[in-house]
Amino acid sequence: MSGAEGNAALSKDPKDRADIDLEPRETEILKSVIEAHIVTGEPVGSRTLSKSRGLDLSPATIRNIMSDLEAKGLLAQPHTSAGRVPTDIAYRVFVDRLMGPPRMAPAQAHAIDEALLRSRSEIPELLGEASRQLSRFSKHVGVVLAPELRRIVVEHVEFVRLEAKRVVAILVDRAGMVHNRILEIEEPLDQDDLDRMGRQLSEQFGGFTLPRMREALLTRMSEETAQCDRLVAASLELGRLAIEPGLGGDVFVEGASNLLGAPEFSSVRRMRALFRTLEEKSRLVELLSRVLEGEGVQVVIGRENPVSDLADCSVVASTYGSGDRIMGTVGIVGPTRMEYARAIALVDHLAKVLTRLLSSPGI
After folding, report:
1. Is the model more confident about 238 or about 252?
2. What are the respective helix, strand and coil percentages of the chain, to the nearest 5?
3. How many CB atoms lie within 10 A of CB 327?
4. Cβ pair 107, 33 in contact under 8 A
5. Is 7 left (phi over 0), alpha (psi -120 to 50) or beta?
6. DSSP letter for each residue of 327-344
7. What are the pLDDT digits (tens) for 95-123?
8. Taking a C-beta distance cutoff of 8 angstroms, is the pair 292, 329 a contact?
9. pLDDT tier for residue 237 given thresholds of 50, 70 and 90
10. What does each C-alpha distance from 353 to 5, 22, 60, 73 come to in angstroms?
């Protein structure tokens, strides 16, 4: 039984039990067990701690303290002859109270900045590169939730003729992001008409969010009479078609193979469940979208995850934006024994770099 499984009977949500009182020696032992487990992924025994962690305590004393920590739901023993592993509650206590300040090596920060600067010309490439950098430096899975279309503010609308009845709709938002969509139309239109229609829509709906624009378009269409100008009616219909499909955001995932060697996923069943979740991007979107409701870096540990197949994982995530507008989420998915301070610093830095780039003119 894993630490997460042993913890299940005590609490479904580690946050419910993270305020446990600890004696100084219990704090020292718990922190040592967690730090050792993060490195090895293996159960930690009292002799291992007494020899390798520099503790001025006998193995017998350490063993007694570990038993007390197990009684408090902070450690679990996978097998009777094995050492202990931290539970989800223990990692929550560690993140909230015991770990050191998040720090990032200047060289890593510089490498990330340079990589994102090289990819800044196109938004999809920039977000894809962000997920690669998260994976590269965390050695886990990097995920980036692209802006939801419902959140963008339309600055400019344009239509480009492809064929007689095929048109590319181009929406440009205030952050300079370009959203393209190919439309099938009933009646052919020449490029001059399309240019005029794009200008009309830009003048009427510039500064609208897509949901507000959709509502206004439908209202205008219902108000127009049969005698209305043909191009006005056509422009309203084109505008509706351009924004009618789903308003959700895409998600970029990089580095799933990094988890293949982790002891937590040696079970084929667990590995399949994890990869299924990473492939079903809608479930990741659901999880990452919740981060949009919080402030700063959010840490979701083990069974705190609303996605059951991520019960053996932790997610460290933060929002990014353009100016003061939140646009999406960046995050790391990895085992619960990840190096949280490093992951938090990495996610925080990358979110701030993305925000700076998306807020700059010319992107």
Report:
1. 252
2. 50, 20, 30
3. 25
4. no
5. alpha
6. EEEEEEEEETTS-HHHHH
7. 999 998 888 999 999 999 999 999 877 77
8. yes
9. confident
10. 38, 38, 49, 39
Tokens 């590269």 locate to 136
Question: How many Å apart are CA 14 and CA 73, to the nearest integer?
Answer: 10
| pTM for the structure as a whole | 0.73
Neighbours of 231 (CB within 10 A): 15
> What is d(CA 335, CA 34) in angstroms, rounded to the nearest whole number?
13
Helix/strand/coil for 302: helix
Answer for the pair 251, 331: CB distance below 8 angstroms, yes or no: no
Structure tokens belonging to residue 253: 């995932």
CA distance 312 to 140: 13
Helix segments in the chain, DSSP class H: 3-8, 24-40, 46-52, 59-71, 88-93, 106-118, 123-138, 191-205, 210-223, 230-243, 268-279, 281-291, 340-359
Q: How many beta carbons lie within 10 A of that of residue 185, not counting itself?
A: 18
